[in-house]
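Review box. Two proteins, two foldings.
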Amino acid sequence: MSGMDGGTGRMTRTGGFGSLAGRTPEKDKASEMFEEEREALAADWSDICTGLKKDLGHQLYSQWIRPIELGSFCQETGTLDLFLPTEFSANWVNDRFADRLSLAWKIARSEVRNVRVSVHPGRRKMVDLRVGPAAANDHVPPPSPVEAITEMGSAGLDPSLTFTTFVTGEGNVLAYNAAQRMAATEAPQFSPLYLKAATGQGKTHLLHAIGHQFAAAKAGARIFYCSAERFMVEFVQALRQNQMIEFKARLRGFDMLLVDDIQFIIGKASAQEELLYTIDALLQEGKRLAFAADRAPQALDGVEPRLLSRLSMGLVADIQPADIDLRRKILEHRLTRFTSSDVPDDVIEFLARTISRNVRELVGGLNKLIAYAQLTGQPVSLQLAEEQLTDILSANRRRITIDEIQRTVCQFYRLDRSEMASKRRARAVVRPRQVAMYLAKVLTPRSYPEIGRKFGGRDHSTVIHAVRLIEDLRTRDADMDGDVRSLLRQLES
């Protein structure tokens, strides 16, 4: 049935087909192009998901990748949006899979230059963490807070984060030993354990490892792992659905409570109070508790004093940033997971020295480099690393100057600064000067002639000789290698 729109005088069609006003051939064509683009993106995403499912396994894929929804693609910026339903899941995917997703999309569609993972606008629903047959059924309704908190004990632990895959060094050995003690069958000497570390230094890894080890040591153990954000969300949902009695009873029925990113519980008074009562109840029954945060308990502003007291009453174990030796060990350990990867020693040394902010970026950089090399058929090289890891490298590089290098070397060898540019040929002066030239080439982007000019106008061939000599001495002379390592630590700290 057709008629005239009294307000505009335009023809409209009624009878259930909707308005046809304003439609033009140009708009129809644009709409068709848009739909074709969406279908092409969806097809590429389907192929990418097939590969990710094969690489990650069914559980990790179902839990973290399956919920991702394809967003819009901006041709001008080359940015593709991927959406997840909660901040927790978006952050988790960003931390662990951002590089992999970005590389997969760049290979599938060259025009995709950036992949942005964020929370779906206006949505904050919980991710269904159930495993088994129900996890494969997209139409099963999400669990209630009580169901979710019961099942997170088994589904919340990442199978790859164990003590076996954790690499120890001087800065994290205390936390590692304390975590193992918490997971042992014997009653721990302290509880709770509080792991404090900056982002990406291994505190989450140790929490997961505690859960896995305890589950293996104690048959039938009930373990609850979650983030503080997740705890608060479950608490609020239980409160709204009048399920607080069941929520408390089930939460306090666990043998081990593992709470990550405890700093995010700041300011949530009701959730803080419930966590406090839960800690008290579990401690009274001899249960085990471990928490992790990016700051010490005393630095948690907005946390109720009684809760601060409980968090710090056991052992607070600090994880220091990984030094260059530990970063090398982590990269070498990671390489054992790749069956067909040939990564030269100079690339490992370059990554260990350059990506120093956190371990997560370090491992992510290696993964990205190897994945790119395998997918494109190129050999892993120093040039490839510099080309493909530009963003990570630029974010980690601290600009070290030749003046700073000369100053540090002179202090180390107890020389006057003027000796760096002097003409003296005494061995006690020449060798430190050569070390400084070597460090200038390793740690700065300066060319050989530029370095030579900073050392009293010396010829570039002198600098090349110094660099090659120190490289050779490091392989044959343990004392020289120790001196250079010590100077590198000072300059990179």
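Next protein.
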Amino acid sequence: MPEINYLWTPPAPVSLPVRGTGARFPVNRLFFVGRNYQAHAIEMGSSVDKASMRPVYFTKSSANLALSGGTAPYPPETRDYHHEMELVVAIGEPGFRVSESSARRMIYGYACGLDMTRRDLQATAKARGNPWDLAKNVESGAVCGEIQPAAGQVLRNGEIVLRVNGEVRQRADLSDMIWSIPEIIADLSSYYHLQPGDLIYTGTPEGVGPVRPGDRLEGSVQGAGKIEFEIGQAE
């Protein structure tokens, strides 16, 4: 096979540590579920009727994934940068148009995640009917902790909590999710051929709010470990 002559060095593969092993989880795509906790939907000015609605999704570039324990600068062009604590599902097997009952086989494990959001830009985009990309697809705006292997296990309850500078900002239970993990995997697989390495951020509970340079975020999800992140000074 001939050597490829790249114009410049390609980016290194994106990966996450796997707890209890020396292996790395190679990251493929980042999917996010919007409005999966009723109380959060209400605090954002809407509500969800599961009987008549399907989950809402958006994506972020894997190049914007940041690892737990790191620091990233407060992003440009915003004055209202928000935290959103989430459970992350790590996909370990391919699947397309899978049933809820077979979705569990695709679960490799779980992690804690932060979906960071330029809330003022999101509000403007909503008002104008524009895409959310500038609000959501922020550099270092998808934070993720180490992967906790849990092949085939479905987390249905357990505390999810986020503290900012030691103060509890978000606290709920996974049982509060509108759509369960099997429901999310099955529904998302009707749109995409899900692949090993895909990460699904399953939505955030109520209590989202602003962060400032110097703030330290610490979160945990029962069964999915912990996450830590610090907001640096604006560039």
